[in-house]
Write a structure and sequence with these properties.
Layout (H helix, E strand, L loop, with lengths): L2 H17 L4 E5 L2 E4 H19 L9 E4 L5 H12 L3 E3 L7 H11 L3 E5 L15 E5 L10 H6 L4 H7 L5 E6 L10 E5 H9 L13 E2 L6 H12 L4 E3 L8 H5 L4 E3 L2 H9 L11 E6 L4 H10 L3 E8 L3 E2 L1 E2 L11 E5 L3 E13 L2 E17 L5 E7 L7 E5 L5 E6 L4 E3 L2 E3 L1 H9 L4 E11 L3 E10 L1 H4 L4 H19 L7 E3 L13 H7 L5
Parallel strand pairs: 1-10, 3-4, 3-5, 4-7, 9-10, 11-12, 12-13, 25-26
Antiparallel strand pairs: 1-2, 5-6, 7-8, 13-14, 15-16, 16-21, 17-18, 18-19, 18-20, 20-21, 22-23, 24-25
Length: 517
């Protein structure tokens, strides 16, 4: 652990929350919580965690996981854990016993954190009940060093992380959307301190009191919320399906991060029509279709900006609302602290551009107080990693998204990107959502197919004959636009299989509709 960084985190958080004690820092489902209330609860829980950690006289370092539903108590306890230097891992509270056992081994967990204070208090501060440190398995195994837990996992991410000097404070699993199997996210004290101090610019700094859903069971959602609290930005938490009402704007909320799928749903429900132009929606991850961008622009209400982001290092680029339609599949320009290089030969050609795999790394900076006074700026350079995306650069240096390298597939002698099929299908107003994929085939390698979710007015009350007619029309549309690159089958689904971050799971569909010999 890095005690100097932990002390700096604790000082910075206390100063931030102590600056305006009466200010509402968090509005959780209509329950306002002031900075003074948060600070008081954090200090109480930090004292508990520090006393508990001191019980380990043998020098071992415990690693815990909170088993708790979404709510402000879980967020506060997570922050207190960080400020006390206690390592923790994210384990979904509704995970099965098999999942818990697997994650406990991967993380090297030593304790579950449970307690009566969680029960039935998902929208309030935890005020009663003592925490209980329960062993991480029924066998009450000995405290296992984190390194042993990482070594027992065979993923490349785990072995690369094990070689780093700074120990992780927050552990979680990646979705596996890019690599095909879950890896390990390791967030260190320096990374958290860098996010809290905001020495390096991020698009999310444009959001004050961001509107967020209550989810805390995944890495990005929990890390973003705790950072908002510790840096004094604050947050407003509401049901992600509820309209954005005046009560949200009254809290000083200036915008929200929103995945493309959620953006499309809110757009269809008319929930963005009356927002002020100053309300900023930051969307991204990788692809935001041009049709979706144009639909938001036509509203003349809220503003839309796009960031290309990954779970390994957060935002990589920024496309401002003013440049939203400048490039097809444009992702904006890399941030100042991002290092990005196109590697290898082009994997895909489109619109006169060659799309390559990329290596990305990020420089993070933070400040620590010197013993003699004053502040010292320190920095770290992330090891380059490949997010498995295909990227091109325009003449002005903007990044253009070409799809995931492991989603592009070979059908006979044709290299096909699912995005070109999806663009054609989404242009039909009867299609609510779609995903294209290469169905596994021993003879052809992969056969282009697509799954579609039809608009309710197209699907409701439609018999098999009407659905078949609509699918035939979609096939003909694709045949006209794509020729031999068209999907050879279009299947209707009630919902698309999605990962925890809302990205479509193409591999699931590729296996489900594989052509068996």
């Amino acid at each position: 652990m890095a005690p100097a960084l932990i002390r700096q985190l604790k000082r910075d958080t206390a100063r931030t929350l102590g600056r305006n004690p009466a200010e509402v820092m968090v509005d959780w489902a209509g329950r306002p919580v002031t900075a003074a209330e948060l600070l008081e609860r954090l200090q109480a829980e930090c004292a508990w965690f520090e006393a508990w950690r001191a019980m380990f006289k043998d020098g071992s370092s415990p690693c815990i996981a909170h088993l708790a539903p979404d709510g402000l108590p879980l967020l506060i306890s997570t922050i207190a854990c960080l400020l006390s230097g206690v390592r923790q891992a994210i384990v979904p509270h509704d995970a099965s016993s098999v999942e818990r056992a697997s994650l406990a081994q991967r993380y090297g967990l030593t304790h579950w954190l449970v307690g009566q204070a969680w029960q039935g208090r998902t929208s309030e501060l935890a005020g009663e009940g003592d925490w209980e440190g329960a062993p991480a398995s029924p066998e009450q195994f000995d405290v296992v060093p984190l390194s042993a837990g990482l070594q027992s996992d065979g993923s490349p991410e785990a072995h690369a992380a094990f070689g780093e000097a700074e120990e992780a404070l927050l552990l979680s699993t990646t979705s596996g959307t890019s690599s095909g199997r879950p890896g390990i996210n390791r967030t260190t004290a320096s990374q958290i301190l860098s996010g809290v101090q905001r020495l390096d610019w991020s698009p999310y700094q444009l959001l004050h009191r961001p509107l967020l859903g209550p989810g805390l069971q995944h890495h990005s959602s929990r890390l973003f919320k705790l950072t908002c609290v510790m840096q004094g930005t604050g947050l407003v938490v509401r049901d992600p399906l509820a309209p954005i009402g005046p009560d949200v704007l009254a809290q000083g909320c200036t915008g929200t991060p929103m995945a493309p799928l959620a953006l499309r749903r809110r757009l269809e429900a008319g929930q963005l029509d009356r927002l002020p132009g100053s309300f900023l929606v930051v969307t991204g991850a990788d692809r935001v279709p041009m049709a979706l961008r144009e639909a938001v622009r036509r509203l003349h209400s809220c503003s839309l900006g796009i960031t290309y982001a990954t779970s390994q290092c957060g935002p990589i680029s920024w496309l401002s609302p003013e440049a939203l339609l400048d490039h097809r599949e444009g992702l904006g320009h890399p941030l100042d602290n991002v290092r990005l290089a196109l590697i290898g030969a082009p994997r895909l050609q489109r619109d006169g551009l060659g799309f390559h795999e990329v290596l990305v790394s990020k420089v993070t900076r933070w400040q620590v107080e010197r013993e003699g006074g004053g502040m010292e700026v320190q920095q770290a350079v992330q090891e380059p990693f490949n997010p498995n995306d295909l990227i091109a650069r325009s003449a002005d240096g903007a990044l253009i998204f070409g799809g995931r390298s492991n989603d592009v597939f070979l059908f006979s002698s044709l290299l096909i990107s699912p995005l070109e099929i999806e663009d054609v299908l989404r242009a039909d107003p009867r299609v609510r959502d779609c995903v294209a994929f290469g169905a596994n085939s021993e003879h052809y390698g992969a056969v282009p197919m697509a799954a579609v979710v039809l608009q309710p007015r197209s699907a409701a009350g439609s018999g098999d004959g009407e659905t078949a007619t609509l699918l035939a029309a979609l096939m003909e549309r694709c045949r006209t636009a794509l020729g031999p690159r068209r999907p050879h089958r279009i299947v209707p689904l009630e919902a698309l299989p999605l990962g925890p971050t809302g990205k479509p799971l193409r591999r699931v569909l590729a296996e489900r509709f594989a052509l068996r010999s």
